[in-house]
From TrEMBL, chain A:
Residues 93-286 form the ABC transmembrane type-1 domain. The chain crosses the membrane at residues 28-49, 92-117, 129-150, 162-184, 205-227, 265-286. Keywords: Cell membrane, Membrane, Sugar transport, Transmembrane, Transmembrane helix, Transport. This is N-acetylglucosamine transport system permease protein. GO terms for cellular component: plasma membrane. It comes from the Bacteria. GO terms for biological process: transmembrane transport.
From TrEMBL, chain B:
Residues 4-236 form the ABC transporter domain. The lineage of its organism: Bacteria, Bacillati, Actinomycetota, Actinomycetes, Pseudonocardiales. It comes from Kutzneria buriramensis. NCBIfam families: PRK11650.1 (NF008653). It comes from the Bacteria. PANTHER family: MALTODEXTRIN IMPORT ATP-BINDING PROTEIN MSMX (PTHR43875), OSMOPROTECTIVE COMPOUNDS UPTAKE ATP-BINDING PROTEIN GGTA (PTHR43875:SF1). This is Multiple sugar transport system ATP-binding protein. Pfam families: ABC_tran, OB_MalK. One of its GO terms (biological process) is carbohydrate transport. Keywords: ATP-binding, Nucleotide-binding, Sugar transport, Transport.
Automatic annotation (TrEMBL), chain C:
InterPro entries: MetI-like, MetI-like_sf, UgpAE/MalFG_permease. Gene3D superfamilies: MetI-like (1.10.3720.10). It comes from Kutzneria buriramensis. Keywords: Cell membrane, Membrane, Transmembrane, Transmembrane helix, Transport. Belongs to the binding-protein-dependent transport system permease family. Residues 1-26 are annotated as: Disordered. Residues 93-310 form the ABC transmembrane type-1 domain. This is Raffinose/stachyose/melibiose transport system permease protein. It is found in: Cell membrane. One of its GO terms (biological process) is transmembrane transport. The keyword Membrane applies. It is a multi-pass membrane protein. The chain crosses the membrane at residues 34-56, 97-118, 130-150, 181-202, 253-277, 289-310. GO terms for cellular component: plasma membrane.
Amino acid sequence: MTVADVGRKAPRRPRPAPGAGRRSPLRVLGMVVVLGFTAFNLLVLYWLIAASFKTPVEIFTKPFALPVRWFQLGKPLRNFAYAWDQAGFGDAFLTTVVLVAASSAAIVLVSAPAAYALTRLGVRGSGPLTNLIAVGMGVPFQTVIIPLFIGLSTVHLTDSLFGLFLVYVALSIPFTVFLLTGFFRSLSDEMEEAAAIDGASPLRTFFAVMLPLARGGLITALILNAIGLWNETLLAIVFLQSQAHFTLARALFTFYGAAEYQSEYGGLIAGVTILVLPMLVLYLVLARRIITGLTLGSGK
Amino acid sequence: MADVSFRGATRYYAGVDRPAVDRLDLEVADGEFLVLVGPSGCGKSTTLRMLAGLEGVDEGQVWIGDRDVTALPPKDRDIAMVFQNYALYPHMTVGENIGFHLKVAKVPRDERERRVRKAATLLGLESYLDRKPARLSGGQRQRVAMGRAIVRQPQVFCMDEPLSNLDAKLRVQTRTQIASLQRRLGVTTVYVTHDQVEAMTMGDRVAVLKDGVLQQCDTPIGLFSKPANLFVAGFIGSPAMNLLPARVDGDSAVIAGHAVRLTRGQRAQLSGDEVVVGVRPEGVDVVDFDDGIPVVVDVVEELGSDQFLYCSFEQAGTGDLVEHAVTARVAGMSPNQRGAKVGLLPRREAVHLFDPVTGSRLED
Amino acid sequence: MATIAAAPATQRGAAGKPGPTGTSGGHLVRKRRLFWPFLAPALILYVVFLVAPTIVTGVLSFTRWAGAGDTPQFTGFAGYLRMFASDSFRSALVNTLMYVVVGGIGTFLLAFLFTMVLRDMPGGKLVRTILFFPNIVAPVALAMFFSFLFKSDDKGLANFVLGGLGIDPVRFLAPENVTLTVIGALVWASSGFYITILMAAVDRIPPYLYEDAEIAGASAWQKFRAITLPLTWDVVGVAGVLWTINALKIFELVFVLAGPGTYSPPTAAWTLGIYVFDRSFGSQGTPDYGGASACAVVMIALTSVFVVLLRRLMRRDTIQF
């Protein structure tokens, strides 16, 4: 039965099941669309990064070529330098990093105990209360900006990064609490009970047992909020007026009109790249976590 | 109706050098119930899936009747498959599930209903036709899966461990039902299981696979009485056959001082001077300590109808005690006791001899 | 994400009664004392920054108010009537509905098409990661990319390509075309998200169901109709709700693409989100907080109506595998 295997090699790719490669018109169409779509996304990314090193003439006349002119002139980073210094993206970058980091941390700090209280304390009415908070995800920001603006201006917190910080934290609570209730609910009772039997106080149980267990969820919440706030534009437009306080998205929004007027397209695209690149890097590192996190709630 | 044949069929999986199924040659006669059995990972399911067309064939061919179906998609092979998890559509009723294949094949509505009703009657499912699978018991779901296969009126049934999700009692009942149904319909059937009892009770013939290689294909009696090699000998039968290594001395194999005679032919087939003596628990007589292989009874398992004695014996020469080395099956309620010293005597006609190097059986 | 789909939280340890075991009962009571301290910060922020402002917006919608320096005057439904009569609101409403309905149909058709291909495609995971990518890019950045892509003169990338093919330039961003252009951009930018949601559900469907359908000889479409769609139906419903919520508040993409960027685009291209912004914080003229609030109320009302309708439409028995 066992014959010496001489000159026999496993194929690198085993033959697919017959019929698997069947070309129904729908599958062919789907394949074309999928590949076209994917190629387009990659092309967009290429175009963006290439264009941020180009002169306006190159951008419009050789959109798919590699950048040449600024490299010849020995100033390859000219567009970025312009955006960073002249257009205020340097300051905005710093502002955004600080604001986004502080806001995301604060959001999780406020939401995690709330999510824990709503899922694991067995208090009557937790369910409806969770739903009430979750409904907040459906409220368009446009619905609240007018009263918020009026309210914050009476306490002099408009055109203030602290004011925007408060708004960011508060308006991110529904999504974050909802996301974290899912995580806390999935934890088993046993660890908590074991801690209780060991005589740990409820507060200690939360910090020493439950938070570490929900760490994956907390990190996901942190990342998703950071991405969302990094890209947030509407609230930044409404609540920030002076350039000194601008976030990246806000700075880009203002720069857009000016750049159009001055034909400063290179600087504009460099600005877009400065806004997009950090998120792209984050995405390349954490793609799976970001994707599953963002699609989590809808799956269940 | 048609026969099935695998001709050197080989299947590789990506990134694995050893084939999952290696040059399988197997003929299944028209109307035959063939069982593929083996431990998990032996390639039995892959073999079935190659027949069904769910798996590509890397080398060799698969034939159904006089057609080479190697490159045909599943739907053109005229087969039906019963999956391990039944693959029932949870959102369809029993009737819709049974009729799904006919609907896809655009069978007219009234003929479809007639055939679904007929299959349901055959399986005792008439009163459940409007239920969803979630509201059925495990056995009923299994029958729906059968119904979906029957209603296609295929040339070949492919069944992939269809009973493994049932509890022990229901499994015994269902296995006779399936076997008798298959005989009534007369449809060639290839049935995969890891359970050798299922294989022995259901199959007209049983094919034993290990590591993708066919070990033996024979009738249950053939497998049991003439296992082709050590693997089959150990795999078929419960409790397993006693396999005792022995040294050949002249024309006899000697186990713990007891001699088992070899024929001249057997002696000639042997590659060395070691031999494995196989004897099933029921092929052993319990005699006085000095009259057979001297053993000590470690455990007595009383089943009422039978009694199993698990015994150890001293290795000749070294004097080491080999624990639970031999199992003997004796009549139930026999007065054997733990710790008793008895002799075990293999009956001459119950002895199987194997070459320890090649594993092959030494023919008489 | 699944706001409305949130199942009621499981009630642990039968609230009010002592726990099942004597030892944990006391602990449970002590634990429950944490409830308000833990929940209060989030709840207070939520109520102060979301619930209360929503109510205030509702009240303001019945007034006429030019903001700081002016006092709100109660005008009843007059503000609403005036708004419904105005062209700018009408086009904002029609455009927004276009985004929700046409964009939604486009996105979901695309997503469905993708589920047929991506399920057993080699390298599908990588493709999914690439498709999802626009979702981590700021809408304002996407909008700027599209403004380069669709610039009306032959400077635009699209017209550059069309010109290369010998086709006359198309004015993609002219007010009469911009809604369709933005719908295209929106579908491109968001479909990755919905594809990912649907594919996550498709991946949970046991593969043997597709194998059985393969034996039956089902086509890609039949597999979709008989397996994929019915078994992902509840996720499709949730995705539909998410789409509605997101599409109804579309703002940056249109604002940047249809206009000069710094102030509002022509009214023919407006959405409800732009209407609110223009009437309150848009740089031109005196603010009309009453009108903006009325439009915001319409937005939240539309969201509720769509969500309720969708949920009613999609309601079905839950399916277990």
